[in-house]
Amino acid sequence: MKFYAKNKIYFMLSLIIIIGLVMSLGASKFIFQKACLRREIQWPDLGVADDWQYGILTDAYKIKKEENKKITITASDGTKLVGHYYERKKNAPVVIFFHGLWSNCYTGGVPIYRITEKNNWNILLVNLRAHGESEGAVSTFGALEKYDCRDWANWVTSEFGEKTPIFLMGLSMGGASDDEQ
Question: Taking Cα atoms as reference points, which of 176, 56, 137, 142 lies closest to residue 104?
């Protein structure tokens, strides 16, 4: 009888562990999909924006429509990445801006765009992988994006020469991605 009771306890413990593992895997998959998979983000509605949001959004729309050079590069893993280059002055420093997670280069880039405009610096607004016009199905929270930052800096160097000052700037995850190199 003792042997049967012991086996029953082991069976129940094993069953609880297996159920816990299955639930953990299911929860992990759900969290991964919510956090990492590409999603289309709609621009906020100007009609419900407060004054500060309205100012940022209207500036973002203006930046998007302003004359720029659309740049497409291929990342080290073959993903096509897209950025928009705004030239203000030849041989001026180039600021490469990386937006935050599930944002876009225009709304996230408004403050730095204003600063570069005031100082007559050139700016490259980058769409991170799995965002906007760039390819990719998954955001890797900096694991691959750090190499994308390097690839963008290499593009600037090859386009404008090694003497051109390059500044990497980012917001939220975009800031975390560019400090890895």
Answer: 56
Q: Kind and range of the H or E element at 126?
A: strand 122-127
Three-class SS of residue 149? Answer: helix
- The sheet carrying 122-127 orders its strands as 69-74, 80-86, 122-127, 94-98, 166-170
85 contacts: CB under 8 Å, gap ≥ 6 = 68, 69, 70, 71, 122, 123, 124
Q: Does domain 46-177 have CATH number 3.30.565.10?
A: no
| Local structure of 169: helix, strand or coil | strand
Cα distance between residue 145 and residue 35, in whole Å: 15
| Residue reference for tokens 């890797």 | 140
Question: What backbone torsions phi and psi does residue 92 show, to the nearest 5 degrees?
Answer: -80, 160
pTM given for the model? 0.79
DSSP label of 166: E
In the chain, count of helices (H) and strands (E)? 5, 5
Q: Are 103 and 130 in contact (CB under 8 A)?
A: no
pLDDT in tens, 128-161: 999 989 999 888 888 899 999 999 999 999 999 9
